[in-house]
Amino acid sequence: MTVTTEDGPQEEYDAKRHAGLYGAQRLKAMSAVLLALLLSVLDYAIANVALPLIAQDLHASSSRAIWVVNAYQLANLSCLLPLASLGSRVGFARLSQLGIFLFLIASVACALSQNLLELTLARALQGVGGACIMSVNIALVRFIYPHKELGRGIALNGLFVGIGVALGPSLGSLILSVASWPWIFWINLPLALAALALAHAALPQTPRSDIPTDMVGSLLTVASFALTGVGLDGLMHADFLSGAAVTVAGVLCWAMLLHYQRERLEPIVPVDLLARRPFLLACLVGFLGFVASNLYIVAMPFTLATAFHRGPGMIGLLIAPWAVGVATMSFVVSRLADRFPASVLSSIGLLITASGFCLLWFLPTDASNWAIAWRTLFAGCGFGLFQPPNNRAIMVTAPPGREGGASGMLSVARLAGQTTGALLVAGLFTIFAHPAFICLGAAMVAALAGSTLSLGRKYLAA
Q1: Which residues have a Cβ under 8 Å from the Cβ of 35 and sit 6 or more positions away?
Q2: Which residues form the Major facilitator superfamily (MFS) profile domain (predicted)?
Q3: pTM value surpassing 0.85
């Protein structure tokens, strides 16, 4: 069934397929989804806090220790689309359970690591487990909530992402104040075991595709993302020769992949979905939004330290209002996402985010903590308003049977935006001697671009 909306003429669903769950069934199934989501988001946020201690304990340089974070993110991004495709074949619930199990095993491996190479490889495995969870996360929500209430489920999903991001640094600091760094990974075990038990008992069985797994396409997809990511990282750190060579290899893999998948019925990189203009526009808006957010998140600690002269403890407290704003507004917007189009809500949200960045940009360097905090909260509230409606727009414009591809692409838009934002920060720090406020200005421009594109999707999607 196709429904014409203000965001475009391709909102599709199947009344029987997307009937959803009710009562206790919905509560248990959604609890399983959110617990698995919290596991992957929380661990990513906690690991950042421990990098200095890990580098010191494993006798590694700071630049090498960053691969503890990069290995997770790159493995996660590279595997999202192949795993989303696999989820359509083996079942979204089964793949989510596999992801939780891999995450549990990888957490043990991280905690027992004796050198940086072991820890990096274990973190990469953790990233694959996280990709199993994230690639089908929204697809499961699509089957748990009925079509008319889907926005509530997606907003709840965004709320828990915000909670994980907000709790991560604080929980990491608390653990490290009383224990050594391996405990940031041991803490995952009870949460993973609870998530695995609940997922096994409560997640709904979803329809499966009978199209065989495309191994060649899967390998090309992983190579395309991984090589491009590593190459661009090298370029942004001024390692031009090797960075350019690896980037070119990644681009060649992309060309081979897109040529190979042109005739596939359900391509791993969902070119069939991206050919749908409302879907493409929603993904681009999501990408720009997360470029803006990571330009802020990655650069702001340096801005607070060098421009505003705040200490490490205060920096964490001044960044926390961003996550509080995202989580709070995600809860508030849960009742609006199903009533108002993304072209309205997401546009306003990104405009508020851009305004918050602008207010921070114009602050004098002797500004009070309160002046910084309320502007950060304001920007975070805008981002929380932007996410759920735009995520809903991505999911409802995918036809029945392509929920896995849409869910994977939603996560790719988020991670690709975050990665691009981080790479831009690295590039700006390489080019400019004092890039703190330049990054804030770039974040404002990216948010404004996303808001403008979102506002125009009603006309561009026609």
Answers
A1: 191, 194, 195, 198, 199
A2: 29-459
A3: no
